[in-house]
Model the fold of this input.
Amino acid sequence: MSSNSLTITDNRTNRTFTLPIENGTVRAMEFRQMRTSDDDFGLMLYDPAFMNTASCRSSITYIDGDRGILEYRGYPIEVLAEHCTFLEVAYLLLFGELPNEAELKNWVNEITHHTMLHENTKQFMENFRYDAHPMSMLVSTVAALSSVYPEARNVHDAANRLRQIKRLIGKMPTIAAMSYRHSVGFPYVYPDNDLNYTENFMNMLWRMVEPKYAAHPVLARALDILFILHADHEQNCSTSTMRAVGSSLADPYLSIASAAAALSGALHGGANEEVLRMLDEIGTKDNVPAYIKRVKDGHGKLMGFGHRVYKNYDPRAKIIKWTAEQVFEVTGRNPKLDIALELERIALQDEYFVTRKLYPNVDFYSGIIYQAMGFKPEIFTALFAIPRTVGWLAQWQEMITDAEQKIVRPRQIYTGQRTRSFVPMEERHGASMVK
Ligand code: ACO
Done:
């Protein structure tokens, strides 16, 4: 018997099973053979919120949460943030290797020529309520692109997939910027192909009457670094959504819309907006201890703290702190930084946070930089969705081409009643709609 195996005795039947261990993992389907009778379904694994379930094999992103390591295709995030542009990293995530000079030039050119939206799509966006949240608009508009590119549903055609991938990466900043301009009542700005990816995004957000927008190079590079840091993070909530929806063979626009919807929640990508609200609520450094006490007493969470995988400092948060210094040299220091630093200082010494291994995550400092750069909190999550689109697409492509993947369909433990007699209307007691 291989030592790389697990032996289990089912005490209900006294039968013993030996299951192979591969990559530190046992296949859940092996448990099905553990049955008490021929018509028994077999043993299932119960794992609410997928705390301990690997749903795929992936060669895109590696995280060691205990050591605070993040790598894309084997390259440490720190190295990529220092040496690469976002589109270079996008290429790496999607194709597995860093592009050479010619490949990068061609890739940048292709993405740049997919930044325009169809005028119909622009009109679609104009019809949202005047104060619509940019994420609501972004999710709906990406979904609407499915109607503009009906061929996208042919997900088994590699060339067709690549065309949609380029479109999505190109159009996402345009959609995010237009969603933002809509929410503040400004006319939409068309893309400028002379600018690089992040500069063009800044142009579409902030150009007013000047004929040509010139982004501050330090701020444009800072945003590019933030995009690199947010590009992928393996099987998080939104990526798992992308894979799950994509597994039904829904087209990539609809799958990205559902992933972006998952991202919008306050416990996921929506946390960066919530961090700013929290810092506003705290107001001054002196109020930090009282706020931490409130959290420990069970009133809310410290937003931007904690992570399902990182039980150490999030490596992205370290790079963001460094990037903040560069940004603040241009914009002046965001006073909220002092409150955030004090929160981090106190929390990292506090038994509650230490024993639970709660450290700042990527969202803790990103909002402070975004705000110093001139972004309003409502656009923060869309800023996350732009680069994460690359990760979602890389993971989607990997899923589609993985022969082991099927339509996602978890099991349940049924806890409701069984086969009841029908109750006529006059005999029903009713039930409260509020649980
Ligand atoms: N503040 C206070 N307590 C916290 C926090 C927090 N931010 N995060 C976790 N805890 C506590 C929990 O209450 C729990 O305590 P208990 O053991 O006494 O019940 C313990 O730490 C473990 O936390 P879980 O909720 O079980 O951890 P989980 O892995 O399910 O949640 C999550 C991870 C959602 C990120 C959580 O830490 C959280 O809500 N953080 C705040 C929101 C946030 O910053 N989200 C962004 C995450 S990064 C990203 O998605 C891009």
Remarks:
- Residues 59 and 162 are 19 Å apart (CA to CA).
